[in-house]
Amino acid sequence: MQKILQVVCVVLVAAAVMFGGRWYMYVARGETPYDEVGIALNGYAPAPLRAWGCHKMQERFFGQLPPYGCAGPDGRSWL
Asked: Which domain of life is it from (predicted)?
């Protein structure tokens, strides 16, 4: 039973590192705010992380339309 719990924990940590790392690369270093995988990962992020990510991308891509998930009610302004 302990071995199964250990394997499950390792898999969960590995998934968090893999998906979290990919999300961070999209937010902090992506070439475009319209990367489909990054948009999907940002959509699954908790609200505080998503807000931070949208703010970070707004600083990096000033003057561009926001990607899905970072758009305000009118679809043209950032959150």
From this structure: Bacteria
DSSP for the chain, written as a single string: -HHHHHHHHHHHHHHHHHHHHHHHHHHHH-S-TT-HHHHHHHHHS-HHHHHHHHHHHHHHTTTSPPPTTSB-TTSSSB-
Give every CB contact of residue 56 below 8 A, 6+ residues apart in sequence: 27, 28
Separation in Å, CA 74 to CA 17, 49, 64, 71? 34, 22, 14, 7
Tokens representing residue 3 in the block: 């071995």
Residue 77: both structure tokens together = 């302004």
Amino acid occupying residue 56: K
User: Among candidates 8, 40, 7, which has minimal Cα distance to 23?
Assistant: 40
